[in-house]
Amino acid sequence: MAYQSFARKYRPKNFIQVVGQETVKKTLENAIKLDRISHAYIFAGSRGLGKTTIARIITKCLNCEKGITPEPCGVCENCQEIEKGSFPDMYEIDAASNRGIDDIRALRDNVSYAPIKGRYKVYIIDEAHMLTREAFNALLKTLEEPPPNNIFILATTELHKIPDTIRSRCQTFIFKPPTKEQIKEYLKWILENENIPYEEEALYLIAEASEGGVRDAASILDQAVIYGSGSVKVETTRQLLGVIPENIVNKFLADLKEKSLKDMVKTIETLDSEGYDLNVFWQQIMEKLHKAMVSIALGQKDDIFSEEDTELLIYTLDIFKKAYLEARNFTEKKDIYQLAVLKLKFMKNLIPIKELLEKGISVQAAPQTKETKQTEPKEEKFDIQKAILKIGKEAGGIVSGALKNASIKEENDKFVILVEKTIADLLKSKLDIIQKYFPKAVEIQEIEIKPEKKKSKKRDEAVDKVLDLFQGKLISYKEE
Predict the structure, then answer these.
(1) What are the pLDDT digits (tens) for 342-359?
(2) What is the span of the domain harbouring residue 228?
(3) How far is Cα 234 from Cα 247, in angstroms, rounded to an integer?
(4) Strands 414-420, 407-410: parallel, antiparallel or unpaired by DSSP?
(5) pLDDT confidence of 456, banded at 50, 70, 90?
(6) Residue 93 DSSP SS3
(7) Same structural domain for residues 227 and 301?
(8) Is residue 415 situated within a structural domain?
(9) Which positions ≥6 away from 87 have C-beta within 8 Å?
């Protein structure tokens, strides 16, 4: 049998096995129990958090042969086929390569047919943000009037690129990275199932290197087992991950305390020439600085720094974080990190305000010039029409139309919307959306519109003229 990587072999098969994502799991389980499945979902979050995995689990829950359940059996033919990706009613579409309008039109044509084998047809659109504008518009028509027994799950790493028109028709779930402890426990579970010896500290290093990605953690663990000749040890894992030895990290931090910038620059040069990953080294340094800062703040002892170094730690950590973000997208990482070290030389020019005041130096605001007055930010006035437009995009045209025709008054602590009863009921049902776009509390008040009395038609002018001419009196008058 061909070797299966840990990431594939231990891909969660049910909600219980999913690492983290407690809110997402509980909501979906309850939706299945209560028979309140939405026709469309958006799963958003960084890579390797379980978006497509949970999409497959939902497919099992709805199509398991034992019935609709939040705990699919995993052994029936339908569950097995979903696991292998060969279930005829599950369609996994990679939007990165099938992003055009023709692909979505084909999907739209397919939804009109009944499921082949299961109860529901499930469409999983991965990297959904990659769809073209035309493709999104074509998909929108299907989401507006979804056929029965069809469910759409859009997985994306960039939620902001999904159009609002699509988002408003889907239930959105945000997938957050699990904790390092949760990832470590997941790795332990894999190794104990495989009977592979390990050291817990090595698993913590892998969890840290994965940056919250469960799939990435499983892939690194695979490498660690191979590199460690069938076991996972701290020493071999450090070598695999390019983690810099503790003595070099501590020497760099000691040089920082003594402001030996030349030695710090030389350390970076040496590590780069020896082939170490400087990003990993910089992460280690930042983590140590952060821990030292927290320890000092809590009145605890740190091995290198003391309370008098608090200001140094704050400014250094700020400079080093900016350098790390720059270096991730820069080829010559060494140059960025060495420059960050050299910036520390100018920290002595930063004099605290307290010290200035003690020396009797007054601190005054710069005088306002014509130019500075022009550049001062003006308080933006609340625009009701703009707010109504935004509400309409989220709540629909009927709501925005009702608001446009309503009487809206601003009082001291609230906005009062005056409308007749039938319209008031509609607006009250959408009050949570309306409130989002108003800067004060919103109160909807009902008003009674009295029917207008029918006005009698004016008498014919010719009749009046005849009466005036002959000084007559009107006995009776009949309108046509």
Answers:
(1) 888 876 555 555 555 565
(2) 180-241
(3) 15
(4) antiparallel
(5) very low
(6) strand
(7) no
(8) yes
(9) 59, 63, 78, 81, 117, 118
